[in-house]
Specification:
heterodimer, A: mainly beta, 4-stranded antiparallel beta sheet, B: 7-stranded mixed beta sheet, globular
Chain lengths: ~110, ~120
C-alpha cells in the first residue's frame, strides 16, 4: 500500500524567506501526487497536483513542486513566503485518479511578520 | 470548479445518540466518495470508500457497524456515527470523485463536519 512521509512537522520562517517542504512517498508503481493546504479554520484546498508530464508543477499562490521519480519525492517550494501562507500543508498520493488519497501527517508552517 | 458540501458544519450530541453527516456533490455526479477523520493537529485518516449503490469499503481498524455509510445516489453519501461516545469527537471530511473533462476524476473535498460528543 502507498504511504507518504513529510519530513518537517513544524516550520517557522520569516516573511520573504524561501520555503521547501519535503515529501517522500512509497509505492512501486505510477502515482498521482498532491499538495493540499488547510488555513486555520478552513477546509482543505488543492495547491497543486502531478498526474503525468512535466515533473515541475506550478500551483496556486506561487507554489510549485518537483516530482523526482528516482528519489520518490515531491517537495513543495515557494521562493518568497508571506504571512498569509501560515497554514498546514499536506502531501498526498493516490494510485489511480479516482482512487483513495492517502495523506502525510502534515507540516505546520508559521510565517513571522 | 466542482463543489462538495457537507452538512452540518458542526454538531454537538449526547453520548449514546447517533449522528448523521451528509456529503453532497453540488454540480457533478460523484461515482466515488471517501470519508476521512482528522484529529486535532493530525492528518486526515481515510475511514472508508463508498461507491454509489454498493457497500462501502472500510479501512483496517474502522468499525463498519459504528460508522454506517450510505451512498444512495450519485450526489449524496451519508456517514452515521452510531451510539456516539466522546472519543468519536473529531473532524469528519468527505471527498468526492466524479467524471468528466472538466473535473478529470479529481477528488474534491467538503468543508468538514466537527462532531463533539458530550
Amino acid at each position: 500500500a502507498q504511504s507518504v512521509s513529510q519530513h518537517n512537522h513544524h516550520v517557522i520562517l520569516s516573511e520573504a524567506a524561501s520555503l521547501e517542504l519535503g515529501c517522500n512517498y512509497s509505492y512501486g508503481g505510477t502515482v498521482n501526487l498532491f499538495w493540499y493546504v488547510q488555513y486555520p479554520g478552513q477546509h482543505l484546498q488543492l495547491l497543486l497536483k502531478y498526474f503525468s508530464g512535466d515533473p515541475l508543477v506550478k500551483g496556486i499562490k506561487g507554489f510549485e513542486a518537483e516530482f523526482i521519480k528516482s528519489k520518490f519525492s515531491f517537495n513543495l517550494r515557494k521562493p518568497s513566503v508571506q504571512w498569509s501562507d501560515t497554514a498546514e500543508y499536506f502531501c498526498a498520493v493516490s494510485v489511480n485518479r479516482d482512487d483513495k488519497i492517502i495523506f502525510g501527517k502534515g507540516t505546520r508552517l508559521h510565517i513571522l511578520p | 470548479g466542482a463543489v462538495v458540501s457537507q452538512h452540518p458544519s458542526w454538531v454537538i450530541c449526547k453520548s449514546g445518540t447517533s449522528v448523521k453527516i451528509e456529503c453532497r456533490s453540488l454540480d457533478f455526479q460523484a461515482t466515488t466518495m471517501f470519508w476521512y477523520r482528522q484529529f486535532p493537529k493530525q492528518s486526515l485518516m481515510l475511514m472508508a470508500t463508498s461507491n454509489e449503490g454498493s457497500k462501502a469499503t472500510y479501512e483496517q481498524g474502522v468499525e463498519k457497524d459504528k460508522f454506517l455509510i450510505n451512498h444512495a445516489s450519485l450526489t449524496l453519501s451519508t456517514l452515521t456515527v452510531t451510539s456516539a461516545h466522546p472519543e468519536d469527537s473529531s473532524f469528519y471530511i468527505c471527498s468526492a470523485v466524479g467524471s468528466g473533462i472538466a473535473i478529470s476524476n479529481e477528488a474534491f473535498f467538503g468543508q468538514g463536519t466537527r462532531l463533539t460528543v458530550v
